Each structure stands twice: as structure tokens, then as C-alpha cells.
Amino acid sequence: MDPELEAFVPLFPRADLTDPVTERKNFAELAAAVPAPDTSGMEVEDHTVAGDPDVPVRVYRPHRARGAVVWLHGGGFVMGDLDTEHPWAARLAAASGAVVISVGYRLAPEHPFPAALDDAYTALTWAAEHAADLGTDPERIAVGGHSAGGGLAAALALRARDRQGPQIRFQLLNQPGLDDRQETWSQRNFTHTPWMNRDKVAASWRHYLGGAPATPHAAPARAAELTGLPPAYVATAELCPNRDEDIAYALRLLQSGVPVELHQWPGTFHGSQAILSADVSQRQMAELAAALRRALAG
């Protein structure tokens, strides 16, 4: 493990997703401890997108933005909201120059699949229909997210393809949760890795699926056909249970004719890019922003 990251491991609160209410509070406290992002070069506005139900979004609009990304936060489908994602959404907007539409989707277990995906699709449709109001191009809309949010972004791309919905230009998938089956080497063997491990992943999927069978729109790795999906950037962490399913998904995308950039970060663990004092974390965040900037400008 990268020594700059290893020093922070003892500071993480216990989070096994058995008590969502308490763990949401702890997650919010962790996010609140992150240094405030610089939002002086952008406009930040909260909106309520009409739907069934309505969906809260927070829009980060840099000056002279050309494209946009519908961004889904992490938190195992159970934790996170617009406020916990604020440090990362604002940094992504500042570094990429893209309009970031951060989505406050409904959380499991109170709202199992497909609630979060429905909310994400509502936000995507709104972004496409209001591109002019957002100061962006309707043909330059990406989807992206971290962890559970990365899995939601991949599922959003699948749903948009299958429903012939809004055109998506790019997928930005950071350590996404893609497969509920947990059959890969990393899922079976990473039992005590920091922040995310085998049991926590299993709990996350139990909450999200709510006892129902998984479908490809819930667990994108189950999709039989990946042709026709947008180009993707897939980032993985070496000591992350999701690592191998993410690499396998990237390979399947490539074999389906989808352009993919795959970046495996050595010495890192799930979510460690949030430790902003570490050099590798700074490089991870910079790469995510650069990939998005290239995709929306090209």
C-alpha cells in the first residue's frame, strides 16, 4: 500500500452498512472534514427536477463550460447526498471545465432498485432537455460516478441505450460496483481491505436489491450485450474488491467495439483518492478530470 495512504487507515470509522442511519451520519462527518473546494470560478445552484418523485440536483457550472456530466455519488447505495459529494463534484467541475450535475438519488434500503436508477435517468433526461439553460451542448453530456455511483452511471448508459433515451457521449467510471455475484478473485479474497471489503460489498448489494433478483440494469456486469455503449474511462484501485469486475467489464467493452481507457492505480484502496494530501490521490483526481475534459472537447 502507498505509505501516504496507509497512515490514514486507522482513522476510518467502522462502516459495515448494518446501521444505515448511523453510518450516514459518520459518512457526512468524514465529508465535512474535507477541505472546502474553491468555487469562485463557477456558479453553484440547487434545482429540483420534476419527476415521480422529484429529484434534487446541484449544478456546478464553470465559466465557458462546453459539456456536462451527470454525476452519481458513492456510498454503497446506502450513504451520501448532495452535501457529502460537494467537495468532489466542485473539484471535478473546476478541474475538467465541465458542468457537473450532482444527483441526490434515493438511498437503499428504504428505496431499493430501481429507485436510484430512476432518479438518475430523470436527471439525465432533464440535463439533455435543458442543455441550453445549463450553458452546455446537448451532444456533450457524459455520465459518471464513484463506487456505487459508478455502477449507477454504467447502468444509466445501459438504460439510455436500451430505451433509446438521451445520447450519452462518455462514461466516467471510478471503481464502480458492477457485479452482485462477487465471483472474481478480488471480491473473494479482499476480506480486510480498508474502507471496502467483501462483506461490506455483499451488504451493499443486499440493501440495493432488496431481495429481488439482479438484472443488468441493477448490476451492469450481468448485461449480455455491451455494443452501442458510449466510450468509457474505467479507473480501479489495486486493493479494492471491485477491481477485477471493473477490469473484466472494461475488457468486455473493448471486445464489443467500445473505446476504453483503463487505469489501474497501484498501492491504492477503494475511495483512497479522497485523501487529498497523498500524491497518488491528487494524480487520481487529476486523471478523472482530464479524461472528462478530453471526452467532452473531442
Strand content: 15-25%
Using only C-alpha atoms, the radius of gyration works out to 17 Å
List the total number of helices.
Answer: 10
By oligomeric state, this entry counts as single chain
Helix-and-strand structural type = alpha/beta
The major beta sheet can be summarized as: 8 strands, mixed
Poorly predicted ranges: none
InterPro entries: AB_hydrolase_3, AB_hydrolase_fold, GDXG_lipolytic_enzyme
Protein name: Alpha/beta hydrolase
Keywords: Hydrolase
Domain Alpha/beta hydrolase fold-3: 69-272
What this model shows, in words?
This protein has 298 residues and is α/β, with parallel strands linked by helices. The chain has one domain (3-297): 3-Layer(aba) Sandwich (Rossmann fold), CATH 3.40.50.1820. It is built from ten helices and eight strands. The chain has helices at 3-6, 20-32, 86-96, 115-129, 131-134, 148-162, 185-189, 198-209, 243-255, 279-297; strands spanning 42-49, 55-62, 68-72, 99-103, 141-146, 170-174, 232-239, 260-269. Strands 1-2-4-3-5-6-7-8 form an eight-stranded mixed beta sheet, with helices on both faces. Helix 3 crosses helix 10 and helix 4 (115-129) crosses helix 6. The radius of gyration is 17 Å and the shape is globular. The mean pLDDT is 96.
